[in-house]
Amino acid sequence: MTTALITGSTAGIGAAFARKLAADGHDLVLVARDIVRLREQATELHDRHGIEAEVLRADLAEDKGIEVVAERLGDRRNPVDLLINNAGFGNKGRYLEVSMADELRMLKVHCEAVLRLTSAAAEAMRERGRGGVVNVASTAAFVPRGTYGASKAWVVQFTQGAAQDLAGNGVRLMALCPGFVRTEFHKRAGMGTDSIPKWMWLDADKVAEAALADLARGKSVSVPDPRYKALMGAAKLVPRGALGGLSSRTGRKYGPQ
Question: Active-site residue 254, yes or no?
């Protein structure tokens, strides 16, 4: 039986991955900041699907939290076969309206943690000759819009480069780039969603299912919905200044989490 480790597992896309993987018979390592929610989630998934669910409390905005998760990923006696780097958040406000401390915290979680955890997992996976990593990015990666979009663009570029470097080693890496997903993300960030058309919203469970299918196909980037595939294709033809204006009208964040 294989084991998957999911960061930010207690809500949104992370919780959807946990439900899907547990239903498919995978054991889980659930990572988040809230130990109470982690234990409740682990109990529910174990009771419903009969899988083993380990909990790991960690704040990926802190070095100690990253180190704890990296150590678990590097455990050769209890290997992790699939890493889902899902943890993330948004900041409300435009550039210079958000404090530097909050901007740096975002880069810590979205970039540094992803780099360090991917590296810890991929090194162990390469030794075994098999494994997979899904780094949750966003369609925001393709839109010029502040630190959030820039951090997700880094995730996409890093993942594609790492996937190329590890080609032939049995390790698959993929950046997941969904659009707006109905999660706790916007509420936590204090962002309004009234301006977002209903047709742009995606279901988290369908996003997770499509992502795992794309990983199995060997894709290095997944945009898990035909609507967003069309939008991202059209975006290549639109001047980047116009795209920035669009993302301004649809909120601080153009994408999921």
Answer: no
Which H or E element spans position 7? strand 3-7
pLDDT tens-digit series, residues 134-152? 999 999 999 877 999 999 9
Instruction: Report which of 121, 129, 257 is spatially closest to residue 188, judged by C-alpha positions.
Output: 257
The model's pLDDT over 84-119, given as tens digits with 9 standing for 90+, comes to: 999 999 998 999 999 999 999 999 999 999 999 999
The per-residue b/e assignment along 38-61, b for 16 or more CB within 10 angstroms, e otherwise, is beebbeebeeebebebebbebbbb
Q: How many CA atoms lie within 13 A of 5 on its CB side?
A: 29
Name the nearest CA neighbour of 133 among 113, 119, 154: 119
- The pLDDT of residue 250: 43
Q: Which residues of the chain have pLDDT under 70?
A: 182-197, 199, 234-257
Number of Cβ atoms within 10 Å of the Cβ of 27: 21
Radius of gyration of the chain (CA): 17
Q: Rounded to whole angstroms, what are the CA distances from 43 to 13, 52, 207, 245?
A: 19, 9, 24, 45
Closest CA to 4 of 168, 257, 187, 208: 208
Catalytic site residue from 95, 148, 228, 254: 148
- Which tokens sit at 238? 């639109």
Burial of 3 (0-12, 13-18, 19+ CB in 10 A): middle
pLDDT for position 257: 44
Residue 136 has φ and ψ, to the nearest 5°, of -75, 115
pTM: 0.88
The whole-number pLDDT of residue 189 equals 44
